[in-house]
Amino acid sequence: MKETPADIAPGADYMVRASAADAQLRAFAVTGRGLTQTAHESHGTSPVATAALGRTMCGALMMADMLKGEDDVLTVKIDGDGPLHGIVVTADNHGHVKGYVHEPDVWLPDRVPGHLNVGGAVGRGSLTVIRDLGLKDPYIGRITLRSGEIAEDLTYYYAESEQIPSTVGLGVLVDTDGSVLQAGGFVVQLMPAAGEEIISRLEQNLQGLPSVTEMLTDGCTPEQMLERILEGLSPVITERTEVSFRCDCSEQRCERGLILLGEKELRDLISEDRDVEMKCQFCGRRYRFTPEHLRRLLPLAVPVSREQLEGAEEDPAADDRHF
Ligand SMILES: [Zn+2]
Predict the structure, then answer these.
(1) Which of 37, 118, 151, 260 has CA atoms 20 to 30 A from the CA of 232?
(2) Are the CB atoms for 190 and 197 separated by under 8 Å?
(3) Which fold has domain 14-245?
């Protein structure tokens, strides 16, 4: 059993943030076994789907930790032509993440024995990062997928879309019964002032680095992963955050979705005279509404349909939203 720091609940997943080489480097590392297991149980994901979702969630948590505002939210959306049909993950900067894959029941032969074929399951396509900073328009960056293995794609995203030289490592190890044995990752980034010596030392460290799942299996904590990555670069841990899978869906949010359907559609549903069930894509939770409940919402509905509302303004992030 790994030692958990005093400020983190025993056995909980957590993330650390570090600065190194007099702030010429910054780095993040996270363990996500528990949150990936929760996602696996919520969505019934196959091993390759669990790995794809777990890697994306660990990456998104570290990316969201870079957000500044209390209410800022980051979404990583992967659209690929592989059998997963895409991944959507949303994280805030308080250590909460939620996510799903469009097709959770994907089975593929391993890439090489013991290595789940995440790239094959994702396929070719694009990776979009949406940062909702509470402004009118979210900040959106998009790249073409490199390998679909997620870590390499995020590395490329930072280079291409944000011009921040970065290395991202992510890994999920799934047991033969489908449960999650290990999950986690790291991000290390060069700040604009980083000198040649620092860069070559970092490269040297990264070259000899075992995979994330090997380090986690060896019992490495997030702090120890960063100690290896930043060896000889005087790392200082600056922050520690507990992380977990958490969805913010609620009956109230579902009601809002039903109200937005518009008066006509709501009347149609009521006339069917049976319960309406809504399922949250992010966590799989189900909400049931009786015809009586729907009738109470009717006075709040506007006499136009959702199609008319959506047609009025093109919203690139619309399909990432709940309901
Ligand atoms: Zn939910």
Answers:
(1) 151
(2) no
(3) Hsp33 domain (3.55.30)
C-alpha to C-alpha distance for 275 and 271, rounded to whole angstroms: 11
- How confident is the model over 258-293, as pLDDT tens digits? 999 999 999 999 999 999 999 999 999 999 999 999
CA of 199 to the centre of ligand 1 (A): 42
Ligand 1 centre from 216 Cα, in Å? 29
Closest CA to 81 of 111, 130, 31, 119: 119
Q: Where are the domains of the chain?
A: 14-245, 251-320
Q: Distance between CA atoms of 300 and 309, rounded to whole angstroms? A: 15
Rounded to the nearest angstrom, the distance between the alpha carbon of 30 and the centre of ligand 1 is 23
Question: How far, in Å, from the CA of 193 to the mean position of ligand 1?
Answer: 42
pLDDT, residue 114, reads: 84
Please state the pTM of the whole predicted model.
Answer: 0.90
pLDDT of residue 122: 98
Residue type, 267: R
Q: Which CATH class is domain 251-320?
A: alpha beta
For residue 160, CA distances in Å to 72, 86, 164, 236 come to: 22, 21, 8, 28
